[in-house]
Every structure is written in structure tokens, then in C-alpha cells.
Amino acid sequence: MSLKDKYAIVGVGYTPQGKIPARTSLSFHLEACVNAIEDAGLKKNDIDGLICYRHFPASSDENDLTPFVVAQHMGIEPKYLYQDANCSRSHLQNAISALDSGLCNYVIISFGHNARSSDSMLTMLNEFTGDDAVFGHFGATGGYALAAQRAMHEYRTGPETWKHIAVGHRKWACLNPNAIMYGKPLTFEDYLNYKWFVEPFRLPDNCLLNDGGRAIVLTSLERARDLKHRPAVIMGLGGHHPSTDIKYSTSMTGPTGAKKASEDAFGMAGITVNDVDACEIYDCFTYTVEITLQDYGFFAPGEGEDWFKGGTIEPGGRIPVNTSGGLLSEAYYMGLTPLSEAAMQIMGRCGQRQLGPQTKTKNPEIILCSDNGGILQSHSCSILRRL
Amino acid sequence: MQRQRRDTAITLVLYPEEVIIMVYNKPLPKLNPDVKPFWDGCKNHELRFQKCQVCGHVLWPPSIICPKCYNKETQWIIAGGHGTIYTYAVYHIAYHIGFANDLPYVVAIVELDEGPHILTNIIDCNPQKIKCGMDVIVVWDDVTPETTLPKFKPGR
Predict the structure, then answer these.
(1) What ipTM was reported for this prediction?
(2) Cβ contacts of B119 on chain A, cutoff 8 Å
(3) What is the pLDDT, as a whole number, of residue A268?
(4) Which residues in chain A have Cβ-Cβ distances shorter than 8 Å to B94?
(5) CA neighbours within 13 Å on the CB side: how many for B52?
(6) Which of A147, A170, A366, B17 has the least C-beta neighbours within 10 A?
(7) CA A385, CA A89: separation in Å to the nearest integer?
(8) Is B109 helix (H, G, I), strand (E, B) or coil?
(9) What is the pTM of this model?
């Protein structure tokens, strides 16, 4: 039986974000979760499912951040408890599966990390890269740079395409007082003036590294109707996990997991790419946005630059993308940055950056979202709607 | 005083005058039963790969099964050391102190003639001259008495 229009995001939890010293990763999980529960108009005893995004290696002054610890501190004993370990992004599918099978009724998905102020990311960098470090290959930037360089070889793309993505995201962030890059506009010239980081990427091609947390609450549409906000209804879902490490991959220029995942999501929703009003795309790097939208069918390989040109994804544009500023310019919470923003837009709670007449964009009836893990190894696509 | 750092195999020898001698301060490969034959081959200046005895697929990374046909019988072959650059990235920042003096350096994926995609460095070449599809040939870098790394330079 189809999962279309049966479940919804009903609450979003925020925390302070940016450089917030003297806070543990756990504290950000807890603050985000508690705020999400309150935002939904629920009580802690309602929550019977908890899904945590992976924890990066604990900082040297913190213990391992498991979902046990989060549940313990929240004073809950969930019926469904789960955490991924290596960035496979199936959290939304897991939440909906747990709800649909009747295992639980209200699920929280949470992420928290003191990435900016602790030594956790340094540990992560060395652990994640394994033997690649032998050749000086470290972290996600290098991996995505390899993919982006191959794309530049196969079709027309590169910094002239990606500058539209970096600048577009920054324009949205400048409408979002919560965004880390709020009040810090970026021009094409600024972008191109940055030095190479890991070529072909410059610093603004990289997502942010910040302290903070984010959580969302999901339940059935039936239950959602009794709650505080207009529900952000899940219309379509799809996942595809090519899994192969980037260094052995031949799909780094597409089709990536985004293609099959979106075909399933569109199939469930019964819509096409032409019905989408806005996108919230997992934008760990500018290139990730291009390859995802390309595999979703917005443009053919090599046509990205022309498609982005003229402010397509910006305020006032035809297909707004990453309206909070995204991972590039708002804050990094893995797939919860795009998902929480999609929910907030559908609920109509986005203030200055609200889609619709205020930003000279289409009303957000249908928003297409993505989550992506590893180096293009894991992809989830979801479609949210206003009902 | 002598101190061995677990992760980088840095050997710091502090003499009374506090002179520091750094032996090799970059990470070394993790040896496990799956990959050891490959790294033993490198020590002999040979690129060793498993070839599936049923479908002929050349496995990389090493494994106990062929991912194409699930056959368990493989034979080690020695690759010729020729290939082309599939993709590359030029590092202008050092994530690890050991690479600070190498900037800018090139990390690449080389597609070997035998099929495997191997992560490596391109050396003896101006990074700005590198292109995808360029012919490259293996160069052996004996970095420690126990470890040799396969790197590549332009040529056929």
C-alpha cells in the first residue's frame, strides 16, 4: 500500500548555531529534540520513536554519543530506537517505516554536533579517510573534488556553474537571521577571488562547519491534524545507495543515487519534476547541488550553467533552492537542514524568506528534498506537500 | 627519548640538544589479511591484483569474492603499471602536517589498463598541466624500509 500522504512532519527544533563554545554535542541533540517536541505541541511521553543521525567521533572531552544517551537524558524509553553509523541516509524511510508498521506513533529525528568548537572533526578526518591518507587524501572535500573534476572532463561544468549555486544560497541566507552567513553577502567576483582549497573547489564551495543541532517530529497525518501547525505531508519517498567508495566509482558524474531515488519518489507522489515549486537539496558542496538537480531531471548534463544563470534558484527565481541558505550558508545538520526548512516553508513560518508573493516565488505547495551520504554513496529523496 | 606515534609512524628522536629527526611523518597503509598481498607486492615493485578465474574481472580492492559473479577462486596477476588519469584533485591545503611541504600536490584516481581504479599521487608533473585521460606510468616510492607506495607520472 502506498505511503503517499499518510505521514507528516509536525514540529521542528532549533538551537543556537555557529560558533557556540563550551557546549557538548549531546546538549545540542537535547535542546533540538525538546524544542521540536514543544514546537509540535506534544509532551515528552508522546514520543515513542527516536532516530539519531550518525555521531561523528566524540570530541576528546566527551563520551560516545549514542541514542541511548540521548533517550536517557530526555527521560524517554522509546519503542523504536535507531542510529546510523556511517552516513547511509535512510532516516526518513526508517521513521515512516516504523510509523507505518505500527511500532510507534511519534518519531523524532535528531542531529547535534559541536563540530566548530571541538576536536571531533579532526579525529573524524583521519578515521574516515583510512588508507587514502597515505596519499594525502583527506575528508569529503577531496572526494567531492575528484567527482567534480571528472564531471568537468565529461561535460560543461566548473566554477562558472558553481558560482551561481554559492551566490544563490548566500542570497537566501541573507534573508534568514538564523543563518550563519546572514549579513555576509557573496558576489560572483568574491567567489572567484577565493583561493583554491582542494582544486577545483574554493572555500565557498564547501558546506559550513558549525556547532548546533536540529530535530524534526513525525507522525501520521491523522494525528497531525490535531497538532499546532499545518502539517508538512510526505507525498513521496525514494532511496538508492550505490555504496561504492568514490575511488572505485564510475558513477560520480551521474547517474548517482539521486536518479533512482527520485524516480521512486516521483512515482509514489504521482507527479513529475515540472510540478515542483522549490527544492531543499543536500548541499555539502556546490557540485552536489548540480549533480542532484541534474539527476532529478531539471536539466541535462552540461546544461547546468545555463539553467542556473539569471537567478533561477535565488529569491525571485523560478525554482528556489535551499531557502534557508542550506548547508553552504545556513548551517550543517546533515539531511535535517533541507528537511526542516522544507517543513517550515510548507507550514508558512519562514518570515522574510517565506516562499510565495513575499519573495516573488511560487507558493510552496510541493517541495522536493534530498539527503546524501558518504561521497555520493547514499541518496534519499523525499517530496513534501501542503494539504 | 624516543616516541612512536600510532597514527603516523612519526619517529621523533630528541637528543639532549633537542634536535628533532623526522623519519617519515605521513600515514602508512593499514595492513590486514585482505590487502597485505597487495602491499607486499608494492615492496617488490609489483602491482598485484586478483583476477576472477570464472568471469575474468580484476578485483580491486582485494576480496574473498568476485563482486560480479560471487566466485571465490581468484589468481594474483601483476599489472603492467600503465593507465590513464580518471580524475584528480589538487590539494592547496594540508589536512596533515606531513603533507605541508608538498603543497600543491595531486591526488588522482588512475584507471589501470587491467581495469582497477587506484587512488594515488601524480608526481613529476606541474599540477596545472594535468588532464583527465592523460597517460601515466607507475613510479615506486620506497617511503620506509617496510613500505613502498605506487605513484604515477605522465608517460606510457
Answers:
(1) 0.94
(2) 132, 135, 137, 247
(3) 98
(4) 136
(5) 20
(6) B17
(7) 21
(8) strand
(9) 0.94
